[in-house]
Structure formats: C-alpha cells, structure tokens
Amino acid sequence: MLTVDYVIVGGGSGGCALAGRLSEDPETSVALVEAGAGKGDSTLIQTPGVMTAMVAKPINTNVP
Ligand SMILES: Cc1cc2nc3c(=O)[nH]c(=O)nc-3n(C[C@H](O)[C@H](O)[C@H](O)COP(=O)(O)OP(=O)(O)OC[C@H]3O[C@@H](n4cnc5c(N)ncnc54)[C@H](O)[C@@H]3O)c2cc1C
After folding, report:
1. Does the Cβ of 56 fall within 6 Å of ligand 1?
2. Which residues contact residue 18 at a Cβ distance below 8 angstroms, ignoring those fewer than 6 apart?
3. What's the gap in Å between 13 CA and the centre of ligand 1?
4. Residue 16, CB half-sphere, CA atoms under 13 Å: how many?
5. Which sequence ranges form a coiled-coil region, renumbered to this chain (predicted)?
C-alpha cells in the first residue's frame, strides 16, 4: 500500500505551489490529485480575447 505524508487535492496555482514547496524536502512524500480541466472547447476559451469575460470583476458578476 502506498502511503504519503501529504495529499493535495487540486493541481491549480495554489496546489502546485504547495506541492512544489513540500516536495523540496526529499524526506517528504506528496501526492497531487488533479481532476483535469475538461476539453477546453468552451467559447470562452476558444475565442481570442473573450477569456477576459471569466475574470471576476463587477461587470461579470452581480456584486456591485
Ligand atoms: C481567465 C482568467 C485569467 C486570470 N489571469 C490571472 C492573472 O493574469 N494573474 C493572476 O494573478 N491571476 C489570474 N487569474 C486568477 C487565477 O487564475 C486564480 O486566482 C488562481 O488560479 C486560483 O488558484 P487556486 O489554486 O485557488 O485555484 P485553481 O488554480 O483554479 O486550481 C484549482 C484546481 O483544483 C482542481 N480541482 C477542482 N476540484 C477538484 C477535485 N474534486 N479533485 C481534484 N482536483 C480538483 C481544478 O481542476 C483546478 O486545477 C485568472 C483567472 C482567470 C479565470
């Protein structure tokens, strides 16, 4: 059975930074579990410039 010291769920910005720092210690074992980002075929991804529509800001949310 595989045992590790740390299990990190999510290989995004935070998860990768954390896994990188923790794994600098050769005595420490780290498992990083990433769900995957899907096909990436959304119009928001495929259309140049439209990615800005995903950035959280008042114009994209109902938060004033
Ligand atoms: C279009 C866009 C542009 C941006 N541009 C910038 C920029 O220029 N500069 C900047 O500083 N920030 C930018 N940001 C914001 C930045 O991307 C986020 O603030 C940052 O990625 C958040 O990091 P995080 O680790 O919290 O989450 P994320 O990076 O979103 O990582 C979360 C990870 O967890 C995974 N996950 C979710 N559920 C599960 C599960 N059940 N099991 C396993 N894995 C799972 C996801 O697949 C994902 O990989 C941008 C965001 C967007 C959407």
Report:
1. no
2. 8
3. 6
4. 4
5. none
